[in-house]
Design brief:
242 residues; single chain; alpha/beta; Rossmann fold
Length: 242
């Protein structure tokens, strides 16, 4: 007798037929061409592709930082496609954490104070100290960005993103400005957040070996999804080599 299949979870975030066209002078630039993509609860997904493949545009649209030219975007059962700016601001503030290649920390504030900027406006935040402990910076909370290494600054940025306990964490080339050893440390932090907090996590990268740490890999090429691959045996971030 065949065992019944486990029911498939509904997506946390889903793009359906998303196209994005930018007008550059008299030329239309197609950043996305009818993309279907979904993020499911608790998974770690890598969006893989070369520069210009549409990865960041897709993440920005799913995160409510941009809107599609065509297609639909859903957060759970809420359609974001026609949300007004105030609704998108609320969506980003309450449900999404962002981590970018550059850390965007305020130089005049300590690590603790940079994280507190988010916790002060969130509904059910972690304490800044707890968020910084999650990323291994218990001893650096009262240091200013200039007193921190690049990897430490990126970990502060991750602490700031997770402090509001978002449903989804969207990371755009989070290791792009870091050397290999420091990049692995940052990926270990993202791995821990995904595992211990259960945060649905998407990581954009052009670095193919990083895909091995994901549950699924969505590959983009020329504004289209060229492959979606399930990783049956993912590796730990500490095992990655590039």
């Amino acid at each position: 007798m065949t065992a019944p299949r486990a029911p498939r979870l509904s997506p946390v975030l889903e793009a359906q037929g998303v196209t994005k066209v930018y007008r550059m002078g008299e030329v239309d630039v197609h950043a996305l061409r009818g993309v279907d993509a979904a993020l499911y609860p608790g998974e770690l997904v890598v969006l893989l592709g070369a520069s210009g493949s549409g990865k960041s545009t897709l993440l920005n649209i799913m995160g409510g930082l941009d809107t599609p030219t065509e297609g639909r975007v859903f957060y759970a059962d809420h359609e974001l496609t026609h949300a007004d700016p105030d609704e998108l601001t609320t969506y980003r503030r309450e449900h999404v954490g962002f981590v970018f290649q550059f850390y965007n920390l305020i130089p005049s504030l300590t690590a603790r104070e940079n994280v507190a900027l988010v916790t002060d406006i969130a509904d059910d935040p972690l304490e800044p100290e707890d968020a910084l402990a999650m990323v291994g910076l218990e001893e650096r909370m009262d240091h200013f960005p200039a007193q921190l290494s690049g990897g430490e600054q990126q970990r502060v940025a991750i602490a700031r993103a997770i402090a509001k306990q978002p449903d989804v964490l969207l990371c755009d080339e989070p290791t792009g400005a870091l050397d290999y050893r420091t990049g692995v440390m940052v990926l270990e932090v993202l791995e821990r957040v995904n595992r211990e907090m259960g945060t649905t996590t998407a990581v954009i990268t052009h670095n193919a070996p990083i895909a091995s740490m994901a549950n699924r890999v969505i590959t983009l090429q020329d504004g289209r999804v060229s492959e979606v691959r399930q990783i049956d045996t993912k590796v730990t971030a500490s095992s990655l080599r590039w």
